[in-house]
Amino acid sequence: MRFLKNIHKLLETPRRQLPRLYLVGGVVRDWLLGKETNDIDIVCRNAKKISETVAMVKNATVVAFEKKADEPCYRIIDRDNKDFVIDLSEMRGDNINEDLKCRDFSINAIAMEITPKGVSTTLIDPLGGQNDLEQRLIRLCSDHAIKDDPLRMLRAIRFSAELKFTIEHDTAVSISKQTFRLKESATERIMSEMIRIFSVSNSTPYIRKMDRLGLLEVVFPEIQPMKTCSQNSFHHQDVWNHSMSVLENCETILNVPESYFGDQSCFVLDCLGKNDRLPLLKMAGLFHDIGKPHTRKIKPESGRISFYGHDAKGKAMLSDMAVRLKMSKRSRMFLEMLAAEHLHVVNLSEIGVKKSTIIRFFRNLGDDAIMSIILSMADTQSKMGPSAIESEKKAHLDWCRKIIAEYFISIKKQIERKNWINGEDLINLGVLPGPDMGKILKKTREAQDSGMFRNKQDALAFIQALHK
User: Fold this and answer.
1) pLDDT digit string, tens, across residues 410-420
2) Which candidate in 327, 329, 384, 411 could, as Cys together with 236 as Cys, close a disulfide (CB 3.0–4.6 Å)?
3) What confidence score (pLDDT) does residue 4 get?
C-alpha cells in the first residue's frame, strides 16, 4: 500500500540511527480492513531524539505534543509531501506488548515492526484485535482504559458508527457505569468526537445508543426536560422522541438527495460540505425544539397545548449550549439560525406569500437557507399526530423541493448580482443621506431581486416613480 512506500522513503536515510520501530493503531487496523490511510502512528524508544534525527536528515518538520508528560508525541511532516504525516510516540512500558495493552480498543492494539527491509507483516496482537476485527467488535483493552482517558467512551461510539461495528457487551456495561467520567475530558475533544459521529451517514442509531448508555445527557443535559414534555395534537410523540424522528428524517433526505432535489442535488451536497454544515444540521434537527419545555402552556378552557416563542427560546438555548461546548462562532450562529428559522420556512410556504418576501429570506441567509428548508422538511415529515394532515405535509414537501430548485436555477443568481443603484446615484437624484436613503435603497434592492429591472435605467425610473 502507498503509505508503506512513504514510510520507507522518509526513514530510509537515517535507518542505521533508529531503534526498533513499530506501526500501531489505526494504520494497522485500516491496513487489515483493506483501507488506504495517511494516519500513521509509530512507537519507539527516544521518540523525541529520533524525530529530530529524521527531520535533520530528511526534508521534514517536527511538531512536538508534550502536554501529557507520560505520552509525548512528535509529528513529522514531510515537506516534499505535506499530506503525509507520521506521529512518533514514546513507547509505554518495557516492550511493545505492554504499550499495546495501554491502548483504547483491541482493534487499535495491533502492531507491525518496521525493519530495514520494510514493514513486517507479522502481527503483534496480544489482545486478539485481529479476531475482533473479523467479528466486527469494539472491545476495551483493559478495565482501566476508560479511567485513563474517559473520552474513549465517545470514541467507542464513533468507531462503532464509522466502522459499523458492535460495541462488545462488557465494554458497553463498563461505559454505562462510568459515564460521569466524561466530564473530565476536554470540551473541545468531546465536540470533535460528536461532530464525527453526526457526520456518519446513519448516525441516528448511534445517538440512540449514546442515549441508552447515559452518555448523551452528560454532553447535552438540555435533553432531560425534552423527554418529559408532551405535545399538542400535531404530534404523537413527546419533544425528545419527535426530535429523534427529525434527525432520522433529516438523514433520510440527506442520504438520497437526488430523490428529493433531482438535478440540484449536487448543489445541495456542495452546500452541506462546507463548514461542518452537515453534522451541525443533524445536531440542529435534534435540538431545534429545545425551547419547547420552557414555553409550554395549556389553555384551561380547552386543554390546548401551545409553545409560543419556542423558536426564539430555542435560539437562545442553542447559543448558550454552543458557548458551553466551546464551538466556533460560525457554528454557534449556524445553530442559532436553524432554531430561529424552522417555523419561518413553514410560514413562507403558505399560499399567498409574496415572492419578494421569499427572496428576502434567501438574501438574508444565502446558502444557509437551504439547510433551514431541509430541517423544515424533516420536521414536517415527523409530525404524525391527528392534526397533521398528510396532504398538507405533502404540499409543504413539494414547495420545499420546488423552492430549492428555483434558488439554484434563478434566485441565487439574482441576489448575487451587484446593486444597480447606490448612495451616490440617489444623491445625484437629490436624495439626502439619512433614513430615507436607506429605505429607498432597500426597496430598490428588493425590486431588483424580484426581476423588475433589466438595467440601471430601469432602476432609476423605478426610483423616480416612487417620488412622484
Assistant:
1) 899 888 777 77
2) 384
3) 66
Within a domain: 299: yes
128, 201: one domain: no
Span 390-396, average pLDDT? 88
In a domain, 226, yes or no: no
Summarize pLDDT for 92-111 with one digit per residue, the tens. 999 999 999 999 999 999 99
Q: At what angle do helices 310-324 and 329-348 cross, to 10 degrees?
A: 160
Are 398 and 268 members of one domain? yes
pLDDT in tens, 230-279: 877 776 788 999 999 999 999 999 999 999 999 999 999 999 999 899 99
Three-state DSSP string of the chain: CHHHHHHHHHHCCCHHHCCCEEEECHHHHHHHCCCCCCEEEEEECCHHHHHHHHHHHCCEEEEEECCCCCCCEEEEEECCCCCCEEEEEECCCCCHHHHHHCCCEHHHCCEEEEECCEEEEEEECCCCHHHHHHHCEECECCCCHHHHCCCHHHHHHHHHHHHCCEECHHHHHHHHHCHHHHHHCCHHHHHHHHHHHHHCCCCHHHHHHHHHHCCHHHHCCCHHHHCCCCCCCCCCCCHHHHHHHHHHHHHHHHHCHHHHHHHHHHHHHHHHCCCCHHHHHHHHHHHCCCCHHHHCEECCCCCCEECCCHHHHHHHHHHHHHHHCCCCHHHHHHHHHHHHHHHHHHHHCCCCCCHHHHHHHHHHHCCHHHHHHHHHHHHHHCCCCCCCCHHHHHHHHHHHHHHHHHHHHHHHHHHHCCCCCCHHHHHHCCCCCCHHHHHHHHHHHHHHHCCCCCCHHHHHHHHHHHCC
Q: 165 and 46 share a domain?
A: no
Q: Is 224 inside any structural domain?
A: no
The count of other CB atoms within 10 Å of the CB of residue 328 is 12
Do 155 and 213 belong together in one domain? yes
Residues 40, 127: one domain?
Answer: yes
If asked whether residues 158 and 242 sit together in one domain, one would say no
- Which one is predicted more confidently, 194 or 236? 194
pTM: 0.88
Q: How many domains does the chain have?
A: 4
What does the pLDDT look like over 50-103, one tens digit per residue? 888 887 777 788 888 877 767 788 888 877 777 778 889 999 999 999 999 999
